[in-house]
Known about the structure:
alpha/beta, 2 domains, two-stranded parallel sheet
Amino acid sequence: xxxxxxxxxxxxxxxxxxxxxxxxxxxxxxxxxxxxxxxxxxxxxxxxxxxxxxxxxxxxxxxxxxxxxxxxxxxxxxxxxxxxxxxxxxxxxxxxxxxxxxxxxxxxxxxxxxxxxxxxxxxxxxxxxxxxxxxxxxxxxxxxxxxxxxxxxxxxxxxxxxxxxxxxxxxxxxxxxxxxxxxxxxxxxxxxxxxxxxxxxxxxxxxxxxxxxxxxxxxxxxxxxxxxxxxxxxxxxxxxxxxxxxxxxxxxxxxxxxxxxxxxxxxxxxxxxxxxxxxxxxxxxxxxxxxxxxxxxxxxxxxxxxxxxxxxxxxxxxxxxxxxxxxxxxxxxxxxxxxxxxxxxxxxxxxxxxxxxxxxxxxxxxxxxxxxxxxxxxxxxxxxxxxxx
Length: 389
């Protein structure tokens, strides 16, 4: 087993390192790992994986990282980009293997990231359940609520409801969307704000209410701050020292904030003193020669019948960070992790603006933001979960 002892950085900017091309090439050769054949255990307490949404092999890369961690620990806290209630029911699936429940959760997940609501996500969770046998995998959803469906289901199961809420659940036409001012949303607002509601003093129910109430704000709250709040009252409180793996989008995973931008979830954990930068390892996937799911196709009756995909770099991110050609030339397989963390890494010299709108803080380098690049080559697009419903 190969071990990544220290944090590493993952984005390549050829323009910034052009004068050190030979050195960077030698560095890559000496600091690369094949995810197809080597298990990559990370010493850091928190391991993060982020990728462009909608490509098949991204799920395979994530499972490879999860598998490597579970081979070394008995308990893994897993934090996907979902809300509190969906996280709870992912735990239920890991326990009982109810695939009908899993499919419905993933379909609901389309409200979050439509490209990830896929057959590949379904297969990933099946693989995770298999890997979790004999281990303890605990799922925590930390994100802003996007659908009330599983919040309603959970409130009903723990006994915090009246006949009206049950009526909403039993009505197959109930609209669980958060963005619209639906009858359910109006009911939930009144229920939570009712001073006679004794359930507000129950810790678990109060936590659910707090997350539901986030959706009542005139302007959507900053998601990363909600993630941070939820993390502190759940993961930090119950599993602060346990091994943790986070799978979220790029914007939530940087280890430091960018100039003029609010801090990401991971940056807030570091700034809040919950963990040190050296206790976090963030790997980002870089697609090459790959496709992503673009959108679903529906007929005039709203029935799903197919999907569109694209290999346009605007959507796949290919070439977004120049220097990709250096990694491609030195890859070990279609999923190769490059470690840029060593003190000798020329990529520690990358400073300033890495992309329009993304400027590194003064005194920092790219190594302060990310830790490893996983080059993913020739990945097919995800297939929508509707294909197996």
